[in-house]
Amino acid sequence: MSTAAAPEPAAAPDPGAVPGSGAAPGLGAVSTAVVVIPAHDEEALLPAALDAVAAAARHPGLAGVATVTVVVADACRDRTAALARRAGAQVVTTDCRNPGAARHAGVRHALDRYAGGGEDVWVATTDADSTVPPSWLAYQLDRAREGWQAVVGTVVLPAASPLALPHRELYEATRPPGGGDWRHPHVHGASLGVSAAAYLDVGGFPPLAVGEDRALVEALERRGHRVLRTAHQPVLTSPRLRARARGGFGDYLAAMPLRTGG
Known about the structure:
Layout (H helix, E strand, L loop, with lengths): L31 E8 L6 H12 L8 E9 L5 H7 L3 E5 L4 H17 L5 E5 L4 E2 L4 H10 L4 E3 L2 E2 L7 H8 L20 E4 H6 L10 H11 L4 E3 L5 E3 L11 H6 L1 H4 L3
Parallel strand pairs: 1-2, 1-4, 2-3, 6-9, 7-10
Antiparallel strand pairs: 4-8, 5-10, 6-8
């Protein structure tokens, strides 16, 4: 899939906060943005994901911000690690077959080696089978400057996929009519961002085989961190039905026809 689109302007502020939270004074200038991508045998799809992240890192809204991309090659038997290095990403190798542990290993690598854990460091995550839009990272940093400590995004399927329409109908069932602000209930590691300080405050991603992203967001909310749920900058993700994690997004899609009467 192409990632060569021209950079988009940053979106307007999004008021889609978790109920009970609100934007506080901004966190100040973000000096470093870390993007972590866990991958298990993803040589076919990882290059497009890395191209998209590289395009997002070139957005003019990131002027003066250092960006670090970390690929966690988890129990890979293919060229995932080699392709990541060729694209200029840092590579962490693990053998845990656990998305939560892999994501956390990537974050810790970046924070320990490059960035530390201050309020001026932003951690974003996406997936190896997903492509972020050009303004994805700039949008998150804009929200961080407004005071949000986490940004929880959404995903879409390729329009050509037969699952695209049923997915959208089910996925957006809670969207208010008339195009109002949508405080969506979804959490995806494919589109998530958090300040390093907030991440460390709650202990980071737990070592879960599925649901590590949701567990992190729930921990942030319990601790009172400001969490923005937004449908701006949706990430294009794979419609593959062979789930890499039992109970994950692939299993959700595999059950989609049953849920929609198809």
